[in-house]
Amino acid sequence: MKAVYFAWVRERIGVAEEEITPPASVQTVEQLVDWLAARGEGYAAAFANRKSVRAALDKMHVTTQTPIASAREIAFFPPMTGG
Amino acid sequence: MIAPTVRVQAEDFDVVAEETRLTQGRRDIGAVVAFTGLCRDEAGTLHALELEHYPGMAEAEIVRVAEAALERWPLMGLTVIHRYGLIRPGARIVLVIAAARHRAEAFAAAEFMMDYLKTRAPFWKKTHRVDGAQGDWVEAKASDDAATARWDAKPSSPAR
Q1: CA distances (Å), origin A3, targets A58, B103, B110, B120
Q2: pLDDT tens digits for B18-76?
Q3: CB contact under 8 A, B137 and A78
Protein backbone atom coordinates (compact mmCIF):
# COMPACT_ATOMS: atom_id res chain seq x y z
CA MET A 1 0.00 0.00 0.00
CA LYS A 2 0.98 3.63 -0.40
CA ALA A 3 1.84 5.57 2.76
CA VAL A 4 1.77 9.39 2.72
CA TYR A 5 3.00 11.72 5.45
CA PHE A 6 2.31 15.37 6.17
CA ALA A 7 3.72 18.28 8.20
CA TRP A 8 6.12 17.25 11.01
CA VAL A 9 5.32 13.57 10.53
CA ARG A 10 6.71 13.92 6.98
CA GLU A 11 9.73 15.93 8.19
CA ARG A 12 10.65 13.38 10.87
CA ILE A 13 10.27 10.36 8.58
CA GLY A 14 12.14 12.17 5.82
CA VAL A 15 9.93 11.24 2.85
CA ALA A 16 6.53 12.51 1.68
CA GLU A 17 5.34 9.12 0.44
CA GLU A 18 6.48 5.54 -0.03
CA GLU A 19 5.23 2.04 -0.87
CA ILE A 20 5.03 -0.15 2.21
CA THR A 21 4.36 -3.88 2.50
CA PRO A 22 3.39 -4.67 6.07
CA PRO A 23 3.17 -8.36 7.08
CA ALA A 24 -0.27 -10.01 7.19
CA SER A 25 -0.24 -9.82 10.98
CA VAL A 26 -0.61 -6.02 10.74
CA GLN A 27 -4.37 -5.55 10.55
CA THR A 28 -5.27 -2.26 12.24
CA VAL A 29 -4.00 1.30 11.98
CA GLU A 30 -2.49 0.95 15.47
CA GLN A 31 -0.59 -2.21 14.48
CA LEU A 32 0.69 -0.44 11.37
CA VAL A 33 1.95 2.45 13.53
CA ASP A 34 3.80 -0.07 15.76
CA TRP A 35 5.32 -1.71 12.68
CA LEU A 36 6.36 1.61 11.12
CA ALA A 37 7.76 2.99 14.40
CA ALA A 38 10.18 0.03 14.51
CA ARG A 39 11.59 0.80 11.05
CA GLY A 40 14.09 3.43 12.15
CA GLU A 41 14.92 6.57 14.08
CA GLY A 42 12.83 8.96 11.97
CA TYR A 43 9.77 6.73 12.18
CA ALA A 44 10.23 6.30 15.93
CA ALA A 45 10.42 10.10 16.31
CA ALA A 46 7.32 10.64 14.15
CA PHE A 47 5.27 8.20 16.21
CA ALA A 48 6.85 8.92 19.62
CA ASN A 49 3.64 10.50 20.87
CA ARG A 50 0.94 8.28 19.42
CA LYS A 51 -1.87 10.54 20.58
CA SER A 52 -0.63 13.43 18.48
CA VAL A 53 -0.69 11.53 15.18
CA ARG A 54 -3.90 11.22 13.13
CA ALA A 55 -4.57 8.79 10.30
CA ALA A 56 -6.68 8.60 7.15
CA LEU A 57 -7.44 5.57 4.97
CA ASP A 58 -8.16 6.32 1.33
CA LYS A 59 -8.61 10.01 2.25
CA MET A 60 -11.12 9.45 5.09
CA HIS A 61 -10.37 10.08 8.78
CA VAL A 62 -10.04 6.85 10.80
CA THR A 63 -9.25 5.83 14.37
CA THR A 64 -6.34 3.68 15.53
CA GLN A 65 -8.64 0.67 15.80
CA THR A 66 -9.82 0.81 12.17
CA PRO A 67 -8.86 -2.28 10.12
CA ILE A 68 -6.54 -1.52 7.22
CA ALA A 69 -8.29 -4.21 5.16
CA SER A 70 -8.02 -3.44 1.45
CA ALA A 71 -7.16 0.26 1.72
CA ARG A 72 -4.85 1.51 -1.01
CA GLU A 73 -3.51 4.58 0.75
CA ILE A 74 -2.82 5.40 4.37
CA ALA A 75 -1.91 8.87 5.57
CA PHE A 76 -0.36 9.97 8.86
CA PHE A 77 -0.34 13.59 10.03
CA PRO A 78 -0.52 15.85 13.09
CA PRO A 79 -3.81 17.34 14.33
CA MET A 80 -5.02 19.75 11.68
CA THR A 81 -4.47 23.51 11.89
CA GLY A 82 -6.21 24.91 8.82
CA GLY A 83 -8.95 27.50 8.63
CA MET B 1 -30.41 19.83 -1.42
CA ILE B 2 -28.09 22.20 -3.27
CA ALA B 3 -24.51 21.29 -4.20
CA PRO B 4 -21.80 23.23 -2.35
CA THR B 5 -19.00 25.02 -4.21
CA VAL B 6 -15.66 23.88 -2.77
CA ARG B 7 -12.24 24.96 -4.00
CA VAL B 8 -8.74 24.34 -2.67
CA GLN B 9 -6.28 26.63 -4.43
CA ALA B 10 -3.00 28.53 -4.15
CA GLU B 11 -4.45 31.73 -5.62
CA ASP B 12 -6.23 34.46 -3.71
CA PHE B 13 -10.00 34.80 -4.02
CA ASP B 14 -12.40 37.71 -4.52
CA VAL B 15 -15.00 37.81 -1.75
CA VAL B 16 -17.44 40.07 -3.59
CA ALA B 17 -17.20 38.04 -6.81
CA GLU B 18 -17.87 34.81 -4.89
CA GLU B 19 -20.84 36.33 -3.08
CA THR B 20 -22.24 37.67 -6.35
CA ARG B 21 -21.90 34.21 -7.91
CA LEU B 22 -24.12 32.81 -5.14
CA THR B 23 -26.83 35.45 -5.27
CA GLN B 24 -26.93 36.54 -8.92
CA GLY B 25 -30.37 36.17 -10.49
CA ARG B 26 -31.94 35.04 -7.19
CA ARG B 27 -34.85 36.86 -5.52
CA ASP B 28 -35.46 34.38 -2.71
CA ILE B 29 -32.23 34.78 -0.69
CA GLY B 30 -32.63 37.06 2.31
CA ALA B 31 -29.29 36.60 4.08
CA VAL B 32 -25.67 36.07 3.08
CA VAL B 33 -22.98 35.56 5.70
CA ALA B 34 -19.40 35.70 4.43
CA PHE B 35 -16.50 34.79 6.72
CA THR B 36 -12.90 35.48 5.66
CA GLY B 37 -9.98 34.11 7.66
CA LEU B 38 -6.72 36.07 7.35
CA CYS B 39 -3.08 35.32 8.08
CA ARG B 40 -2.42 37.05 11.42
CA ASP B 41 0.84 38.29 12.90
CA GLU B 42 0.45 39.46 16.48
CA ALA B 43 4.09 39.82 17.48
CA GLY B 44 5.62 41.28 14.32
CA THR B 45 7.81 38.17 13.96
CA LEU B 46 5.92 36.36 11.21
CA HIS B 47 7.21 36.54 7.64
CA ALA B 48 4.57 34.16 6.29
CA LEU B 49 2.52 31.06 7.01
CA GLU B 50 3.16 28.01 4.88
CA LEU B 51 -0.03 26.02 4.45
CA GLU B 52 0.49 22.37 3.62
CA HIS B 53 -2.50 20.29 2.56
CA TYR B 54 -3.41 16.74 1.61
CA PRO B 55 -4.43 17.01 -2.06
CA GLY B 56 -7.63 15.15 -2.77
CA MET B 57 -8.56 14.66 0.87
CA ALA B 58 -8.70 18.40 1.59
CA GLU B 59 -11.41 18.91 -1.05
CA ALA B 60 -13.23 15.68 -0.10
CA GLU B 61 -13.28 16.51 3.62
CA ILE B 62 -14.54 20.06 3.04
CA VAL B 63 -17.31 18.64 0.82
CA ARG B 64 -18.24 16.17 3.61
CA VAL B 65 -18.48 19.02 6.14
CA ALA B 66 -20.44 21.18 3.66
CA GLU B 67 -22.90 18.34 3.06
CA ALA B 68 -23.39 18.00 6.83
CA ALA B 69 -24.15 21.75 7.00
CA LEU B 70 -26.63 21.44 4.12
CA GLU B 71 -28.40 18.63 5.95
CA ARG B 72 -28.69 20.71 9.12
CA TRP B 73 -29.86 24.02 7.64
CA PRO B 74 -32.03 24.88 4.63
CA LEU B 75 -29.27 26.79 2.81
CA MET B 76 -29.69 28.29 -0.64
CA GLY B 77 -25.98 28.57 -1.36
CA LEU B 78 -22.71 27.48 0.24
CA THR B 79 -19.20 28.31 -0.97
CA VAL B 80 -15.94 27.31 0.71
CA ILE B 81 -12.49 28.26 -0.59
CA HIS B 82 -9.30 27.32 1.24
CA ARG B 83 -5.84 28.39 0.09
CA TYR B 84 -2.52 26.58 0.44
CA GLY B 85 1.09 27.61 -0.07
CA LEU B 86 2.95 30.63 1.32
CA ILE B 87 0.59 33.27 2.72
CA ARG B 88 1.78 36.62 4.09
CA PRO B 89 0.32 38.41 7.13
CA GLY B 90 -2.84 40.27 6.18
CA ALA B 91 -3.59 37.99 3.22
CA ARG B 92 -6.73 35.85 2.93
CA ILE B 93 -6.58 32.12 3.81
CA VAL B 94 -10.14 30.84 3.89
CA LEU B 95 -13.61 31.92 2.76
CA VAL B 96 -17.01 30.57 3.80
CA ILE B 97 -20.19 32.04 2.33
CA ALA B 98 -23.60 30.78 3.41
CA ALA B 99 -26.81 32.03 1.80
CA ALA B 100 -30.29 31.38 3.20
CA ARG B 101 -33.77 32.84 3.49
CA HIS B 102 -33.04 34.18 6.97
CA ARG B 103 -29.90 35.27 8.80
CA ALA B 104 -30.05 32.71 11.63
CA GLU B 105 -29.36 29.75 9.31
CA ALA B 106 -26.69 31.67 7.40
CA PHE B 107 -24.80 32.71 10.56
CA ALA B 108 -25.06 29.24 12.13
CA ALA B 109 -24.00 27.37 8.99
CA ALA B 110 -20.98 29.64 8.40
CA GLU B 111 -19.81 29.16 12.00
CA PHE B 112 -20.38 25.38 11.80
CA MET B 113 -18.33 25.22 8.58
CA MET B 114 -15.41 27.08 10.15
CA ASP B 115 -15.44 25.06 13.38
CA TYR B 116 -15.37 21.78 11.45
CA LEU B 117 -12.86 23.03 8.87
CA LYS B 118 -10.37 23.84 11.59
CA THR B 119 -10.46 20.39 13.16
CA ARG B 120 -11.22 18.09 10.18
CA ALA B 121 -9.85 19.58 6.96
CA PRO B 122 -6.30 18.29 6.35
CA PHE B 123 -4.29 21.53 6.36
CA TRP B 124 -1.24 22.33 8.49
CA LYS B 125 0.36 25.72 9.13
CA LYS B 126 4.09 26.27 9.51
CA THR B 127 5.49 29.64 10.54
CA HIS B 128 8.25 31.35 8.60
CA ARG B 129 9.95 33.93 10.80
CA VAL B 130 11.07 37.43 9.84
CA ASP B 131 14.54 36.78 11.35
CA GLY B 132 15.01 33.69 9.17
CA ALA B 133 15.20 31.32 12.17
CA GLN B 134 13.60 27.91 11.81
CA GLY B 135 9.84 28.26 12.15
CA ASP B 136 7.50 25.90 13.98
CA TRP B 137 4.40 23.98 13.01
CA VAL B 138 1.36 25.69 14.52
CA GLU B 139 -0.13 23.52 17.25
CA ALA B 140 -3.78 22.52 17.23
CA LYS B 141 -5.83 24.21 19.94
CA ALA B 142 -8.08 22.39 22.40
CA SER B 143 -10.47 25.35 22.10
CA ASP B 144 -10.98 24.48 18.41
CA ASP B 145 -11.91 20.88 19.32
CA ALA B 146 -14.33 22.24 21.92
CA ALA B 147 -15.87 24.62 19.36
CA THR B 148 -16.49 21.67 17.02
CA ALA B 149 -17.82 19.40 19.76
CA ARG B 150 -20.47 21.86 20.91
CA TRP B 151 -22.38 21.36 17.61
CA ASP B 152 -23.15 17.79 18.69
CA ALA B 153 -25.40 19.12 21.42
CA LYS B 154 -26.99 21.97 19.45
CA PRO B 155 -30.33 21.91 17.68
CA SER B 156 -29.99 22.20 13.89
CA SER B 157 -32.27 25.12 13.20
CA PRO B 158 -31.83 28.03 15.59
CA ALA B 159 -34.99 29.78 16.76
CA ARG B 160 -35.93 32.93 14.88
Answers
A1: 10, 44, 34, 20
A2: 999 999 999 999 999 999 999 999 889 999 999 999 999 999 999 999 999 999 999 99
A3: yes
